[in-house]
Amino acid sequence: MARKLPALTPDTVPFWQGGAQGVLNIHRCAACTRWFHPPAPICPRCGSFEVGAQPVSGRGKVLTFTVNHQPWTPELKDPYVVAIVELAEQAGLRVLSNVVDCAVDRVAIDMPVQVRFEQHEDVWLPLFSPAHRGASQ
């Protein structure tokens, strides 16, 4: 699938390159312990500068999704699922991504998912696949 890659900044490198080690890194505030995404140099909740990326489980659930049937470029295969995934670490901690390794008609709200990574140049895109049965959420 052809993708436009994100710009890498000091704040975003841990998120976009954590997949090289199989880790999903999300920013967390040391002052108020709140997780937040997208990465930023300041906590959006309390204003602290004591923030940094930390690994999370990579587990979550599909909060909402849409199935895209528009092939925006010739290389882009359709249909595909664009989803907001709520991560297990905290209510309201959400990541926009794709659900893969699953027929589009099988994707559902509240479906348990697990992160997996797809490398493109120096970026490891976090994508989500259906969680294996028995995986704790």
Question: Any overview of this molecule?
Answer:
The protein has 137 residues and is mostly beta strands. It has one domain. Helices cover 4% and strands 40% of the residues. It is built from 1 helix and 8 strands; from the N terminus they run H-E-E-E-E-E-E-E-E. The strands form 2 sheets. It has a 5-stranded antiparallel beta sheet, with no helix packed on it. The chain has a 3-stranded antiparallel beta sheet with strand order 2-1-3.
Can you give keywords for this protein?
single chain, 137 residues, mainly beta, 5-stranded antiparallel β-sheet, 3-stranded antiparallel β-sheet, 4% helix, globular
Short structural description:
The protein is mostly beta strands. It contains one helix and eight strands; from the N terminus they run αββββββββ.
Percent of residues in helices: under 10%
Judging from the principal axes of the Cα atoms, what is the shape? Answer: globular
Number of domains: 1
With strands numbered from the N-terminus, the spatial order across the biggest sheet is 6-5-4-7-8
* Proportion of strand residues: 35-45%
Task: List low-pLDDT spans.
Answer: none
The number of distinct helices, counting runs of at least 4 residues, comes to 1
Structure class: mainly beta
Terminal CA distance: 29 Å
Mean pLDDT: 93
Write the element-wise H/E pattern from the N-terminal end onward: HEEEEEEEE
The Cα radius of gyration reads 15 Å
Q: Give a short account of the largest sheet.
A: 5 strands, antiparallel
- Count of DSSP strands: 8
